[in-house]
Amino acid sequence: SQSCPDGAKRRVCYYYDRCIAGVDYGEDHVMVPRRVDMAHALIRSYGLLGDMTRLRTRPATDAEISGFHGARYVGLLRDLTPEGFGAGGEVARRARGCNVGAVSTYGRSVDNPPVAGLWDYCQRYAGGSLAAARALASGEADVAINWSGGMHHACRDKASGFCYVNDIVLAIEELLGHFRRVLYVDIDVHHGDGVETAFVRSNRVMTVSFHQCTEGFFPEQRGLIEHVGEGTGRLRAVNVPMKKGMDDDGYRRLFEPIMTRVVAVFQPEAIVMQCGADSLSGDRLGHQNLSIAGHARCVSFMRSFSTPLLLLGGGGYTINHVAACWCYETAVAIGKNIADDIPPHCYDGLYRSQGYKLFYPADKNMKNDNTDTYVTRTRSEVLQNLSELEA
Ligand code: ZLM
Ligand code: CA
Ligand code: ZN
Questions:
Q1: What is the CATH number of the domain that holds 162?
Q2: How many domains does the chain have?
Q3: Residue of 109, 186, 325 to mutate, ligand 1, most atoms within 8 A of C-beta
Q4: Cβ atoms 186, 210 nearer than 8 A
Q5: Whole domain around residue 354: which residue ranges?
Q6: Residue 210 included in any domain
Q7: What is the 386 CA–ligand 1 centroid distance (Å)?
Q8: Is this structure's pTM higher than 0.95?
Q9: Ligand 3 centroid from CA 316, angstroms
């Protein structure tokens, strides 16, 4: 097992709602909410539930969700059903411009289908992130976890990239009621566009996204290094674009110096981290080459600042990898070592392809397009922008 560099314990609060696991985006949609149930089962099988306080909470209310999202869009999400979405239906008309579609209307696959039980699903994952934020604000927890949250693409008035309600924006707004400055860090392979846009003019929120930025990769034209925020938010949006094949070493050479400088210049009172697991090696959508240890190293690095820390999920499309990753990161949050052998439990058969080990290896043969020169140049450009903020 991997050792946790910071042996000190933290009080950890953990949110899990089994209703979320049953949500179905469609037969072969890449987003599988059951991966959170798999992570939960793994967490339980490693005996980690006893080291955390379980957050029991209510679903987020319409009023809470309307704190960020527009009234017309909230009304639509509430009324959306797969049945009511039939061609020419009233709901389909209202959904125009909201980026919610159905296979039946377009005859092809869509990112954001009118999922059965959609509003309940959104209320629950957003409720979890809000409760986690409140546990940090009250001082009840040092680290709070909601693996079903982290839906970073959702916009005020439209869905995007499998995300309908932006629980991250809601959680940050909640934290801003109690902390002067909130840092947002996003290690999902996709750019955290919804969160960046929401706070692009804010000097109380700094957003940092590490992401794949290659031709045709979603969301296009977002997360360029020169996108640094606007107006009073200038220099408080940080973007770290990467090519395909990024490995643990290169990632660490960007992440640690950049986050060290970010924390030094911005001095956050709370940190929100989106831990999208699609930056792992072998993901169905991402083309990065991180091991679970490399991904989790980022979590343990952010934890080492001893600032209230909110850990959220996000992407992750090779579901056995996702569950293994978030289970290990739960152990890192607690400050406990766990064994490489996956304990017997209800989903253990799904880990066959990784030899029933938690720490499956990264791809030794994958080409890394992030050359040493690229990594060095990217790091110095980002640090250069940050030094302007210092001045
Ligand atoms: N088409 N099925 C990351 C969000 C990524 C936009 C190209 C729709 C897919 C993808 C859906 C089963 C996070 C785009 C894609 C296909 C326009 C994206 C359903 C495969 C499937 O097989 C699929 C029928 C589906 C969707 C692939 N979509 C791959 N990449 C991105 C969105 C979300 O990880 O950051 C956080 C949770 N969408 O590239 C298109 C341009 C729609
Ligand atoms: Ca990202
Ligand atoms: Zn993603």
A1: 3.40.800.20
A2: 1
A3: 109
A4: yes
A5: 12-59+127-390
A6: yes
A7: 33
A8: yes
A9: 7
